[in-house]
Amino acid sequence: MSTLTIRRTEPLVEATAVLVDLRNFTPNLNAAPIQHQINGFCHFLADMYGDCVEAVLTSLPAAQRGQPPVYVNGSGDGGLFVFFGKRHFAFGFLAGVLLDARLSQTCVEYNARPKRRGAPDTGFGVGIESGFVNRVFAREKGSEHGLGIDAFIGHCVNIAARVETITKTLYAANTIVADTTVELVAREIAGTTFEELRRRERRSRCDARRLAVHREMADLNQKLCLSYVNRHILKGVKEPMPLYRLARSAVKPGLPRFDELLRVLVRDDRSHLAEVRRFLTG
């Protein structure tokens, strides 16, 4: 047994993984001017990281922000946020909505700056999925803040990463939500899931009933402010997985279906809803 470190793996817990990745990181880093020994692109990165943290905190009720039930792991060109607790899927989904809105604005503003020396526009992708994770860590003994490695490992983290890469290949699909998260949110929003609707469709013996189920699916997509982008083959997944992109034209305060979605996600918490709306319109 080591006398220097604590090493532990914790049991599986339910969680939602939200992975954010920045586009064209390297060419923008290389093209940015250096002033006072600071690469200019790093100022943008600091803004982006701040936007990510603010979006994640805003997705949570104020009472949970003192000790937020979220794991954060940053990398040079993005970050991983893993939500825990009973409503991890709702807060992870809401964080995806807030991230998409704020990072869209942040990237547009950066791309309009002069003196980028021909670097391609920067952008972003967000992948979201729910499931189970294990916490794995090794830490210096006798210190909560000493040298250590802390990570959350799980299938949903891998899926969030795979899904994020698909945002690079689809038009107007900066944020993609994978099947498990969508089903959990659908159950909370509408009391049903797409899988249940698909089973009803398969059991239907006439065109009229199948068309009725299709209309219910379209209505559920609208309630969730999502667009179905078909099933995709993902590395490490046996069957093609249904994926959904955030419909940016629908996620605007003032639109009735979006306002209703926000209301359900925050459980009618008026102060939380007001903060979310300020974040989206500020």
Round the mean pLDDT to the nearest integer and report it: 94
CATH top level label: Alpha Beta
The CATH topology corresponds to Alpha-Beta Plaits
- Give the strand tally: 11
Succession of helices and strands: EEHEEHEEHEEHEHHHEEHH
User: What general form does the structure show?
Assistant: globular
Give the % helix. Answer: 40-55%
* Percent range for β-strand residues: 25-35%
CATH architect. name: 2-Layer Sandwich
List the helices and strands and how they pair.
Elements: E1 5-9, E2 13-22, H1 25-31, E3 34-35, E4 38-39, H2 40-59, E5 70-75, E6 78-83, H3 88-111, E7 124-140, E8 148-153, H4 155-166, E9 175-178, H5 179-190, H6 194-203, H7 207-224, E10 226-232, E11 241-246, H8 256-265, H9 270-281
Helix pairs in contact: 2-3, 3-5, 6-7
